[in-house]
Design a protein that fits this description.
335 residues; Alpha-Beta Plaits; 2 domains; 15 strands; 36% helix; alpha+beta
Length: 335
């Protein structure tokens, strides 16, 4: 649900004695797209892509201005090389190698403290990501940092100025990064505790499974935290009146009032229909919707309309489609 570390795009350097024919093969036969420079290539490619640098002579360090072309292709390097070996185009390729992989890490707080903590486990060179890609593309791995969610494509503008080059192979380094991710992250927050929040779901029509799945999609899509437990419980909206509610224990770095804003925006649909009631508790104290009023919007449905738009703008299309589909199913339970 809460991604801290994930892989970036792969890179493949190909030396050719017939650059035009190799470029034609990758574009026409494999569907590769041309990018004009290294920045636009990494901007367009996500973890499912390979960036291909075509050169006439592959030196130990290949500069981007030495490339005859830069292509991106949605496939793994080994799959690409297998296709090449099974085609006559292999006669025009004189050398190939994998360039360093990229690991993205989501960070909060003081990045310098996170980098210092990483230094306890790894030696590194620090620079911006483009300079590292230009000057260290023979071996090793690059670690880049961002405060933005990393389940979606990471924009170059969202990457922190400081990135690390670590002379360690990708497969072993990403295992280390994932194993120590929380330790690194907590160093940036001065080992500050996470917020433990209780979310109560209530629906008088009883569509709890649909609401839970929808809530999970929203929390995952926004990468807000981690669900640590869930259970049925009772609430008492009036004296001696008990109603069943579904309780979710949620850990997050975000302020509880921010989580309340997200949930206020999730209670209503675009047409103003209220489909669920979310209560948020922190330290056993309920956070009311009036605690998160903005822009003098003193009507809950108007406030929800504002927050809902903000939520949907931040969620990637695949998650958004799932949320809309669940909302359609929820509406069916109203009749």
């Amino acid at each position: 649900m809460f991604s801290i570390v994930r892989r970036g795009p792969k890179s493949l350097i190909i030396e050719s004695n017939n650059v035009d024919e190799v470029k034609r093969y990758f574009r026409k036969e494999l569907g590769a797209a041309t990018k004009c420079d290294i920045t636009s290539a990494f901007q367009a490619a996500n973890e499912d892509y390979t960036i291909i640098f075509i050169v006439q002579k592959a030196a130990k360090i290949v500069k981007s201005n030495e490339c005859m072309d830069i292509l991106i292709l949605q496939d793994e390097p080994d799959v690409i090389l297998c296709k090449v070996l099974n085609n006559d185009i292999k006669n025009y390729i004189t050398y190939s190698r994998i360039a360093p992989r990229i690991i993205f890490m989501r960070v909060f707080g003081d990045l310098n403290k996170i980098i210092d903590k990483i230094k306890e486990d790894n030696e590194y060179e620090k620079n911006n990501i483009i300079n590292l890609l230009e000057n260290y593309n023979d071996e090793g791995t690059i670690v880049a940092f961002t405060e933005k969610p990393i389940r979606r494509r990471v924009n170059m503008t969202d990457i922190n100025e400081d990135a690390l080059y670590i002379r360690q192979n990708y497969s072993s380094l990403i295992k280390t990064m994932r194993a120590h991710a929380l330790r690194y992250l907590n160093a940036g927050l001065d080992n500050k505790d996470w917020y433990e929040i209780e979310i109560k779901i209530y629906d008088r029509y009883g569509a709890y499974e649909l609401h839970y799945d929808r809530l999970l999609k929203i929390l995952e899509g926004l990468e807000l935290g981690v669900i640590l437990g869930e259970s049925w419980t009772k609430d008492y909206p009036r004296l001696f009146m008990a109603v069943g509610v579904y309780r979710v224990r949620f850990f997050t770095f975000y302020d509880p009032k921010y989580i309340k804003k997200i949930l206020v925006g999730s209670e209503f649909l675009e047409d103003g229909m209220r489909i669920v009631d979310y209560d948020v508790y922190y330290n056993r104290k309920k956070i009311n919707w009036t605690d998160v009023i903005e822009d003098n919007l003193r009507s809950k449905n108007l406030l929800s309309e504002k927050y809902r738009k903000e939520i949907l703008d931040k969620i990637q299309k695949s998650d958004l489609n799932d949320i809309k589909s669940l909302e359609t199913e929820i509406i069916k339970t109203r009749t």
